[in-house]
Amino acid sequence: MKKIFTLAALGLLSAASMEAQAQITLDGKVSAAEIGTGTGKYQLAGTYTGTHSVANKGLQSVYIATSATKLYIMVVGSSESTDYPGFVVYLNVPGRTGVAAGTQLKGGAAGDSPLKHTPTMDMQTDYGFRATTAPTGDNNVYYSYVDYTNGNTAPVPDTYQGNSQKAGVPIVASATTGPVLGARFSYLSSASVTAAATAGSGLEMELDMAALGLTTGNAINVMAGYVKDGGAFTSDVIPQVVGQTADLGSSPNFSTLPGSQNVTYVVGTGVTATRNEVAQQLNFKVYPNPATAATTVSYKVLSANQEVELSVYNSLGQVVRTLAAEKQAVGTHTYKLPALAAGTYLVKLSVGADVTSSKIVVE
């Protein structure tokens, strides 16, 4: 019998245990032996540490891994309720043209699927996946996906892929072509998010990299959420919205929130720094905010001859000003924010491979 460790105690594990060679088992849970670095090991992509708008339900963490041929996404949390809530995962992969960042998704066609919601993401959105859990006492979990690479005209097809039980036994997606060809889904139920954190249980997805067009070195973007029956986002999304304690609703605009609402994972390398971590590293600041005539944007370039792009986007995701687009020398660089019409904007900074952003309000 495989021994399962409390995730909160992983920091106490020895280095030897973290280097174990066990491969990922698709069973709706992440074990200590499956966490580490390199091929076939889960890496922590994000945690939820805030107040849950649905008491003791929702998300605890997200892990991502790849093998030689598969992409794994593990959403740790509890979705048990008296109705039909669930988990959603949104994905951006290279080489596909989905819905641009800052553009509202039109929502899926299936009335019984949470993917009918209409969020605005801060990443390009290619695919959305859902696992809807039946009421407590009913062991069914239902899976489907939307493919935004085929367009964003409502209603977007929401293709049902089958159902599993809540005991962790995986199912194979019913698709015979497309991005979920050969995919498998598994769900292991826990009564509460506290219990899920201890067991490492929740939704586990295995996607075929060939079906997604992924190879070593490709960067993907992932966002996960806990949604109510009907598709409204609760407070629980990963990456976490700092200070969020109420439901986000059916049509949240993640592109206007501070920080980043997606995590980047590089196949063969692992999880990269979040935008908040990048902002700290680059000492990226936009101040004062709300904007005045004296609002300044500043940042540091840490290595010589880095390609830098500094742009301002409106709430529709359109570039309204480009302040820099050039190679810049090491050191601190400062720009005055240009005059803008009243509204909410996103100041986006790219320095080499590092990307971060900050929301700014013009009154």
UniProtKB/TrEMBL annotation:
Leader sequence residues: 1-22
Pfam families: Por_Secre_tail
InterPro entries: Secre_tail (IPR026444)
Annotated ranges, domain Secretion system C-terminal sorting: 286-362
Keywords: Signal
Signal is among the record's keywords: yes
Highest rank taxon of the organism: Bacteria
Protein's recorded name: Por secretion system C-terminal sorting domain-containing protein
